[in-house]
Amino acid sequence: MPSKIRLSQTLLMTFALLAGTIVQAAYPGSSPVLLQAGDAALRADLEWLANRGVLDISTSTWPLPASIVVEAVARRNIRLASPQDYATLERVVRAVEAATQNSWGTELDVNTSKIRATGFENTPLAREAASVYGQGSNDVAAAHLEVRGLNSSLTDRQSRTDLQGSYAALNVAGQILYVGQLDHWWGPGWSDSLIWSNHASAIAGVGLRNGSDAPFQTRWLSWIGPWGYELFLGQIQHDEVIAHPQVTGMRVYARPLRGLELGASRMIMWGGAGRANDARGFWKAVSGNSNTATAQDDPSDELAGFDLRYTLPFIGGNPVTLYGQAIGEDEAGHLPSKYMVLAGIGMAQSLGSHRLQWHLEATDSETDRFFGRKAGQSGLAYNHWTYRDGYYQDQLPIGSWMGGDGKSVSANLTWTPTEWRYQQQYTFRYLHAQVNPGDQAINQAFPRADTLNGLIGGVNWMVPRTHIQANVGASVIRKQSNGATQFGGLLQLRIPLDKY
User: Residues with Cβ < 8 Å from 272, sequence gap 6 or more?
Assistant: First the structure.
């Protein structure tokens, strides 16, 4: 990231805290702390409670405001709660408390595998990484500053140092206005998102997010149910064909019926070096028709689509969730077209004092292939005739972890003992995927065509009394291209030094 952008972010974070301190007495509100994408343990806890009807909350749009979680916990449905649910609620409350407390510390990461994350979990973008962080918040402002150094990055375009995970936020009349470099995740997928995931370096920018997803109070709009949105304006770093293109993101979701959530997302890449970056260029990208005769006339590269998630009533005491996502790589008649698709099914199951969460998920990131039901159109997904670096940052996919033209099936199990003192959570995944069949150079997550078969496991826990958060993982991936078996190890330690 250019030094002037880092300086601007740091100054804005300082301003946000000062402004919040000044206006706090005059404007009471709820803390605008943001919970970032990548905390797989927290998401599993929230989805467990949402699927079982204890919490009315969405987990499809990250970063997730802590105020939404606090609001959901306050109005929890205790009539449905079981001992496992109460233990999970306690885990959620502790996680939110840790995120909202004034703290400082360090994080140390080791990732021996050159394969990027294949799921929601936060995985280092280098073999070794180390960071120092500090955070603080009040009822109006919040800030988290994290300075990170990387050694042996996954791609040559990544910065050796960055501010990933840093942000400053203000509560503005119940809405959260933030600036920073935060991981995002848009969609209901357990292991993948076709439009915005945390599989690439986070995009630096400015965003606006609802601080509450309560329904409208008017009878004309109350039928929409709990709802939320996010607006984002950022900039891609390190592209070479067109340097520093702008990115505009828009998402809205609603829960009109019990158990049903609907979402719509749109991402636009526009502007950049040599192209219109003013208000006129922005409006042309947002409102224009992208089907133009020449690359020079094309105002933007756009992806848009829809997702849904529906939890069926308890089957044998265990709820079943169906979910899907369809994202169009092109536009026809002002609607998305040339779709990539994702589909999955999950179940939340109690077994004694243990929680089991099962997910079977499939993704097809080739346009109009629909899991082999049609011939498909290769070379279109996450590609563009003007923005030839593609829908990637640092040559890592902003959408699906595979990049374009891939297909995958994964079987996932999350096991959470609810009575063990270390707050452990174990994850297991079987993965089969075909990646980058066209050997596209823009995809350095998988730079050549390959078929992968793998087993991935991990454990996340909190060490008692030390407040240290630890995550240990291992993977075994067999690549069909050369018959090699690749073993990977992961170690992450987050140590709040202010506790000592």
Answer: 236, 239, 242, 243, 244, 245, 246, 387
CATH number at residue 359: 2.40.160.130
Supply 179's token pair.
């600036």
Q: Which helix (H) or strand (E) holds 142?
A: strand 141-153
- Token output for 367: 């346009």
In three-state form (DSSP H/G/I as H, E/B as E, the rest C), the secondary structure along 157-186 is CCCCEECCCCEEEEEECCEEEEEEECCCEE
116 close to 396: Cβ distance less than 8 angstroms: yes
- Peptide bond between residue 63 and the one before it cis (omega within 30 degrees of 0): yes
Please provide the average confidence, as pLDDT, over all residues in the chain: 88
- In degrees to the nearest 10, what's the CA dihedral of 204, 210, 212, 213? -110
The continuous run of DSSP H or E covering 251 comes out as strand 246-257
pLDDT in tens, 392-426: 999 999 999 999 999 999 999 999 998 777 788 99
- Tokens standing for 303? 């992806």
Question: At 282, phi and psi to the nearest 5?
Answer: -65, -45
Residue whose structure tokens are 């790589």: 329
Tokens 């986070």, located at residue: 202
Counting the structural domains of the chain, the total is 1
Distance CA 349, CA 317 (A): 8
Rg of the chain over all Cα atoms, to the nearest angstrom? 22
| Tens-place pLDDT, residues 28-78 | 357 899 999 999 999 999 999 999 999 999 999 999 999 999 999 999 988
Torsion of CA 57, 59, 60, 66, to 10 degrees: 90
DSSP string, 438-490: T--TT--SS-S-EEEEEEEEEEEEEETTTTEEEEEEEEEEEETTT--EEEEEE
Structure tokens at 21: 């301190």
Q: Which domain holds residue 130?
A: 3-499
DSSP class of 196 = B
